[in-house]
Amino acid sequence: MFSFSRENKINSIIVGVDEVGRGPLAGPVFAAAVILSKNICLKGINDSKKLSKKKMSEIFNRIISFSKFSIGLATVEEIDKINILQASLLAMKRAVKKINIKDASILVDGTFSFDKENKNIKTFVNGDSIYPSIAAASIIAKVIRDKYMCLLSKQFPEYGWDKNSGYGTSQHMISLAKYGPTPLHRKTFAPIHKMLFKK
Fold first, then answer.
1. Tally of domains in the chain
2. In this structure, what CATH number is given to the domain that contains residue 113?
3. Helix axis angle, 190-197 to 170-179, nearest 10°
4. DSSP per residue, 95-155
5. How far apart are CA 31 and CA 36, in angstroms?
6. In 3-state terms, what secondary structure has residue 184?
7. What is the pLDDT confidence band of residue 1, given thresholds at 50, 70 and 90?
8. Which residues of 83-96 are buried (b: 16+ CB within 10 A; e: fewer)?
9. Which long-range contacts link 117-121 to residues 24+ away (Cβ below 8 Å)?
10. How does pLDDT run across 28-46, given as a tens digit for each residue?
11. Cα angle vertex 135, ends 14, 36, to 5°?
12. pLDDT of residue 197
């Protein structure tokens, strides 16, 4: 189980940052920035990929009750224009800008910083398994993106985004073959690109 022991060694406000949605074939990429209250119970908080939907929803409700957080996203158009890595960093940058805390220590999951000039940003591979603030950010970003994809699914119900969140499941791929890509599909991703530009 997580504890604040690692984060307690950092003598400043901590903002945990993580993104979700790099892999899907459709929809925006989302990022969350989170400042956890020291009063929150950390039980169950973990990397969002390791939690069931039910458990994640329960923990999400607890986190948002005891935390300050913000969301940033990068659109499908931005993903196709600047690539998914840069779009993920852009979403993180937007989330942190919205939370608007000066001189905070910003703990980011992954290898890359979204602002190399900002010395307060520290990156950690598998950070969502090390720091509770990053894990909380992964949960918030995941739950909110899934909810957003459910809304988009109402416009394009054939693709099952309410269940697959835009990932390339067998159902999604069958629907793509039958109906073709939508404006919300990422045109630079290989399966979509092949469909659009096949000879």
1. 1
2. 3.30.420.10
3. 20
4. HHHHH--TT-EEEEESS--S-TT-TTEEEETTGGGT-HHHHHHHHHHHHHHHHHHHHHHHH
5. 16
6. coil
7. low
8. ebeebbbbbbbbbb
9. 120/12
10. 999 999 999 888 888 888 8
11. 40
12. 81
Round to whole Å and give the CA distance between 85 and 87. Answer: 5
In single-letter form, the type of residue at position 33 comes to A
**Tokens 């189980």 label which residue?**
1
Does the CA dihedral 165-76-143-125 come out positive or negative? positive
CB atoms within 10 A of CB 97: 13
> 78: which residues sit within 8 A by CB, 6+ positions away?
87, 90
Which position has the token pair 């805390």? 101
Parent domain of 39: 5-197
Q: Enter the tokens of residue 189.
A: 């991703």
Indicate the pTM of the whole model. 0.92
In b/e form, how buried is each residue of 31-63, taking b as 16+ CB within 10 angstroms? bbbbbbeeebebeebbbbeebeeeebeebbebb
